[in-house]
Specification:
Distance between the termini: 5 Å
Helix content: under 10%
Radius of gyration: 26 Å
Number of helices: 4
Largest sheet: 16 strands, mixed
Strand content: 35-45%
């Protein structure tokens, strides 16, 4: 039963959940026309060679004036201006993909609503036709963007969305501070930002006069040809926002905006303008948002500062933020001397600035409360850590050769700490020891390579080793030893302590890992061997691994919110009788690789039988071993609520061997959808032993 068919086409890395996707090879989405409702007007069905799955595409009508609920099994084209108006509600289910052509943009008019309530595993995607259908590289400016207009206060009389000030549907603003324009949650807006005319550009996400009754949470905007997010007035609050590669300002607030932004990450990639621009463009109310728990990273060549205070009647409050500014005009650039009213209200508290000029501009003397960044120092970790050690987030730690935490020691890594490995470096937490790496969304803990961090090389797989945690939980091998060096007694793992606690890995990024020690002795990004259910593993991002992204040898550990991008072997691999739960797994292949997920037992009891739920696997053409690879006949995983977008070989699910009766009785696929799959939905000698529902 095919519940959903969609392709996530998301390029780039985000703070925690940044995706990279693969588009269909179809070059035309209008090969057939059907009679539809007034809300859509064209339909195309694209199927693989054996008709095992279908992707249906429809073009949205340019006017949506009555309530409409989209279907997550379809992909919706935005061509030209699509306006939701007349108090209609557009409901977009989790997992839906919408894509715009070079003229496409969407506007939710004042009084109408958008309910786009995605999940971490099934975000709602707005992307470009070029990236999704035409297989072009994802770039800024391939379609328009999403604009929401509300009835909350602004400091302009009768404002109208600047893209077309002659269009009465583009009115915004009013007196309803708690106005509700709907929900935007777990939404990704990619490759946006076309210019309609000179000075009439569309942003990734525009919020104009939007009220505090509107939910805007967990938003990722990448590749905008104009601003990433621009807010014109209103009172809407934003939570957990990331903007990458916006070519104008990444975040822009104007027209008397007075809401709160909690958790904002800005990452410039190409030369651009300000990380944040704040202006009023009027008088009362002054633009005076509260922006807290933020990080702004700019690049050399950008101008207008990390934060740009553009006029003299603007009074934002900034709390707990970091500005890493390599561009021009100062870490904070205050263009004009501020009025007394603005000076009395503007505030910077716990703001650290790393820049050659901390504050600049005619109003620089009106700003206080900025702190100099603590000078970065570097230390090389000892190869043996045998007593408790707490690192310092203001120090970058080098991992050279094997670093082992042993003798029941605990290594504590504070939020915001960076560790980097050289071409020989990898870290092992030995059985009985602990790692407490508890990052935050704004300050994740980073493991990366010396080549990238110090030498300025491009990020690539295989530039250092990776992180391995060994525990005392159950496995189906006797006297198991981590395969990288089976002669090392510190590499023993497994035992009888199902709830063993090896510490915390939360909000951790592992990048550019996966060296080979010897033939068949490769290091993964993250290896968990015999790790118990008392261990916390949440919000993990692994990118560019020369071997597996994450491999689990036995144990009972549970994983939550995991993303693996560009692993050159298997993205996720479970073996040795692993019996934990993985909730929220996103796999994005970029280069040719092997399985999206590999499941094997390598022994008998307990069978490898994890529960893996709320997952998305995106593979690329040229990869082998399927989207999911069931490698042996004594393996019984449970898969729930997942999507496999498989462009590679060996079937969407590849079952190498006919399964034993015991395995057949336990293995389960429930609410799992397979799309594309040129070799078929399921292949291999055991294909008939599984039922995919």
């Amino acid at each position: 039963m095919f519940k959903k068919s969609f392709i996530h086409s998301i390029a780039a890395a985000s703070l925690l959940f940044s995706f990279a996707g693969c588009g269909s090879s179809d070059s035309d989405d209008s090969s057939s026309t059907t009679s539809t409702s007034s809300t859509t007007n064209t339909e195309d069905t694209t199927s693989n060679t054996d008709n095992s799955s279908e992707v249906t595409r429809e073009t949205l009508a340019n006017t949506i004036s009555s309530d409409l609920t989209l279907d997550a099994s379809k992909q919706y084209k935005i061509s030209g201006l699509v306006t939701v108006k007349d108090e209609a509600t557009l409901t977009i289910p989790a997992g839906t993909t919408l894509y715009g052509d070079a003229t496409g943009y969407m506007v939710i008019a004042k009084g109408a609503k958008i309910i786009a309530d995605g999940t971490v595993a099934e975000p709602i995607i707005f992307t470009s036709e070029d990236a999704l259908i035409n297989s072009a590289n994802p770039e800024a400016g391939q379609w328009g963007g999403l604009t929401v207009l509300g009835q909350a206060p602004t400091n302009h009389d009768n404002p109208r969305y600047e893209v077309d000030e002659a269009n009465p549907d583009f009115d915004f603003g009013g007196t309803v501070a708690n106005d509700n324009s709907g929900i935007l949650r777990n939404v990704k807006i990619l490759n946006s930002g076309i210019a309609i005319n000179a000075d009439q550009e569309i942003n990734g996400l525009s919020l104009a006069g939007v009220g505090s009754g509107t939910v805007v949470e967990n938003i990722y905007v990448e590749n905008s040809g104009d601003d990433g997010i621009e807010i014109w007035g209103g009172t809407v609050n934003l939570t957990n926002i990331e903007i990458k590669n916006a070519l104008d300002d990444s975040f822009d607030a104007d027209y008397g905006y007075t809401g709160t932004v909690d958790g904002l990450v800005v990452n410039q990639v190409e030369d651009a303008h300000a990380g944040m621009e704040i202006s009023s463009g009027g008088t009362e109310p002054m633009t005076s948002p509260t922006i807290k728990n933020f990080v702004v990273n700019t690049v050399a060549g950008s101008d207008e500062g990390g934060i740009y205070i553009k006029d003299d009647t603007t009074a934002p409050t900034f709390i707990n933020g970091t500005i890493n500014h390599l561009g021009l005009d100062g870490g904070v650039y205050v263009k004009k001397a501020l009025t007394d009213e603005a000076k009395a209200q503007i505030s910077f508290s716990d703001i650290t600035v790393s820049a050659s000029t901390k504050v600049s501009g005619d109003g620089a003397g009106d700003i206080s409360g900025l702190q100099d960044a603590v000078a970065v120092t570097r230390e090389t970790l000892s190869n043996t850590i045998s007593s408790d050690l707490t690192l310092n987030k203001n120090v970058q730690y080098k991992i050279s050769g094997l670093v082992t935490v042993k003798d029941r020691a605990t290594l504590t890594i504070p939020a915001g700490t960076t560790l980097y490995g050289d071409a020989t470096g990898y870290m092992v937490i030995a059985k009985g020891s602990k790692i407490v790496a508890d990052g935050t969304v704004a300050e994740p803990i980073i493991f990366t390579s010396e080549d990238v961090l110090i030498n300025g090389a491009n990020p690539e797989a295989g530039q250092w080793g990776g992180l391995t945690v060994l525990g005392q939980s159950t496995v189906n091998h006797e006297s198991a030893v981590y395969e990288v060096d089976e002669s090392n007694p510190d590499f023993a793992f497994g035992g009888t302590v199902a709830n063993d606690n090896s510490g915390i890995l939360r909000n951790v990024k592992i990048l550019n890992s996966g060296i080979t020690i010897n033939a068949d002795q490769e290091i993964n990004g993250l290896s968990l061997a015999g790790v118990g259910s008392g261990t916390v593993v949440e919000n993990i991002y692994v990118e560019n691994s020369g071997d597996d992204g994450i491999e689990i040898w036995g144990g009972t550990v549970n994983l939550t919110n995991i993303e693996v991008k560009n692993a050159l072997d298997d993205s996720f691999d479970a073996d040795y009788g692993y019996t934990g739960t993985v909730d929220g797994l996103v796999v994005n292949q970029v280069e040719d690789a092997y399985a999206g997920m590999e499941i094997s037992s390598g022994g008998t009891e307990p069978m490898t039988s994890p529960t893996i739920k709320n997952f998305v696997v995106n593979t690329v053409a040229g990869s082998t071993e399927g989207g999911i690879y069931i490698k042996d006949d004594t393996t019984a995983p449970t898969f729930q609520n997942g999507t496999i977008n498989h462009l590679g070989l060996d079937g969407g699910v590849y079952v190498k061997k006919a399964l034993t009766d015991e395995a057949k009785a336990q293995i389960s696929f429930s609410d799992v959808t397979i799309s594309n799959a040129p070799d078929g939905q399921k292949t291999g000698d055991g294909a008939d032993d599984i039922v995919i529902q």
